[in-house]
Amino acid sequence: MAIQFHKRPGLVAYITCGDPDVDTAIRIILAAVEAGADVIELGVPFSDPVADGPVIQAASERALHGGTSVKDVLHVAREVRRHTDAGLIVFSYMNPLLRYGLEKFCADAANAGVDGVLVTDLPVEEAGPYLAAMSKHNLDPIFLVAPTSPDARLKLIAEHSRGFVYAVSRTGVTGTRQEVASDARDLVKRLRQFTKLPIAVGFGVSNAEQFAEVGRFADAAVIGSAIMQRVFDNPGSEPEAVKAFLRGLTSSMKPAAARKG
Ligand SMILES: O=P(O)(O)OC[C@@H](O)[C@@H](O)c1c[nH]c2ccccc12
Predict the structure, then answer these.
(1) Above 0.95 for ipTM, yes or no?
(2) What is the pTM assigned to this prediction?
(3) CATH class of 8-251
């Protein structure tokens, strides 16, 4: 098990664990994998999700309302891992992980079959103890870079990243957009100077055209809000709806030389 992209662009699917409930989230994730997702971001719902747009905020609220905890997210990982080798990333704010206990979290995540972790609000400059715990348990630390990150910061992040690097196509919050920001292309180019790891681009990728466009300049595209919108719009048939949507994106993609993280 490792983070690996099989097509170009690779597909990273963000899924809030626990929306509408934990068991359905497991089925949604497996449906996304069947539709071609290489990596799943297992979203830990959090009460103060400052970087999230309205769709993912609402998904988080529903998941919290159902009582979804870090422990549940690790249960999701363990169940999903029984059926697939897809890359599994826990996607969280720092607070829930600290409450769980950082060392215990890393041990339990590795044991559940998780490959990597992305903490949205942890700057690499403050990540010492986190990086040590991650490395001890052989987990890949994934970081976000933004168009506003200066080169020195891109370099630092590249040095501490494993698996892939997540390039946010613009500043602001997550959510669907009309077009993929041209900033994203420049950012990928700048980041490429500092790393050979795959680069995934996210924020505002919501249809087949944008997905293909990202593939022209990056290794993978992240899709979040467009998936969680399908979950919300299709009560009772969430996995089927997500699968149909993602198949529409991946069906025209070509196999690429596999790029290992
Ligand atoms: O929703 P979008 O625009 O498709 O972007 C992916 C994004 O949602 C997902 O990766 C994500 C969820 N929460 C975040 C917080 C910060 C950065 C990124 C994220």
Answers:
(1) yes
(2) 0.94
(3) alpha beta
